[in-house]
């Protein structure tokens, strides 16, 4: 059975949601990202030398890392779940475009907020993120999902990264982002993953 290494609420929540949507059998193993120990007292660096989640151990025990790769793997293994359009279809590249944007522009822009001890660096990162939130809010005003007409792997990742905005104090309101978040959060697979990660109120 596949095993997803995750940390509660981290970017690996994306793949947790997608696995719940896929209908595939899987198990999860929690990782403490500070100590790099798993809940079964294993040294996580022996599984993934980068020490990062998400990490997916496949049925044949091969290790797959990186958000973009694992999300596509889950989607392509379960076409009936409609998590990404097939190769050659225009919608696929819209989804990959947004998936890349979330990974390289949005996710990484949070870095100083989580890691820096210098307030000026945090403030600069917040300013960058506010501009991105404003642009996302404008895009989501008249659409249900970020890339295509239906939910895709890009929406799962976007939802997870936008959840983190709660740690930023005094953000302006973004009504279209709020509606998007509610729409995604109401999906049964999202509820299931949140519950399994102990993130339900
Ligand atoms: N490039 C990696 C980045 C993954 C990443 O940033 N994971 C974070 C959690 S959201 C993590 O494991 N941080 C711990 C660390 O970097 O030591 C990917 O896209 O999968």
The radius of gyration is 17 Å
Q: Record the strand order, biggest sheet.
A: 3-2-1-4-5
- Taken together, the total number of domains comes to 2
Structural class: alpha+beta
The CATH architecture term of the largest domain is Up-down Bundle
Helical content, roughly?
40-55%
Shape: globular
Overview of the structural elements:
The longest helix has 22 residues, at 119-140. Helix 1 (13-22) runs antiparallel to helix 7 (153-163), helix 6 (119-140) packs across helix 8 (175-185) and helix 7 (153-163) crosses helix 8 (175-185). 51% of the residues lie in helices and 10% in strands. By secondary structure, the chain is of the alpha+beta class. The two termini are 30 Å apart. It is built from nine helices and five strands. The mean pLDDT is 97. It has two domains: 2-82 and 189-196, Glutaredoxin; 90-187, Glutathione S-transferase Yfyf (Class Pi), Chain A, domain 2. Bound molecules: glutathione. Residues 10-11, 33, 51-54, 66-67, 103 line the site of glutathione.
């Amino acid at each position: 059975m596949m095993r997803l290494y995750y940390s509660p609420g981290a970017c690996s929540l994306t793949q947790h949601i997608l696995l719940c949507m896929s209908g595939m059998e899987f198990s999860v193993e929690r990782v403490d990202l500070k100590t790099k120990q798993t809940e079964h007292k294993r040294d996580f660096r022996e599984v993934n030398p980068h020490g990062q989640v998400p990490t997916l151990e496949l049925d044949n025990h091969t290790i797959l890392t990186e958000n973009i790769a694992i999300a596509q793997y889950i989607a392509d293994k379960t076409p009936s779940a409609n998590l990404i359009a097939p190769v050659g279809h225009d919608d696929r590249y819209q989804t990959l475009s947004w998936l890349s944007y979330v990974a390289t522009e949005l996710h990484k822009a949070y870095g100083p907020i989580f890691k820096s001890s210098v307030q000026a660096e945090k403030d600069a990162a917040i300013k960058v993120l506010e501009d991105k939130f404003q642009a996302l809010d404008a895009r989501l005003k008249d659409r249900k999902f970020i890339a295509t007409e239906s939910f895709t792997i890009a929406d799962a990742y976007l939802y997870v990264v936008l959840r983190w905005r709660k740690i930023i104090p005094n953000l302006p309101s973004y009504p279209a982002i709020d509606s998007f978040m509610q729409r995604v959060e109401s999906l049964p697979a999202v509820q299931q993953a949140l519950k399994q990660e102990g993130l339900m109120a």
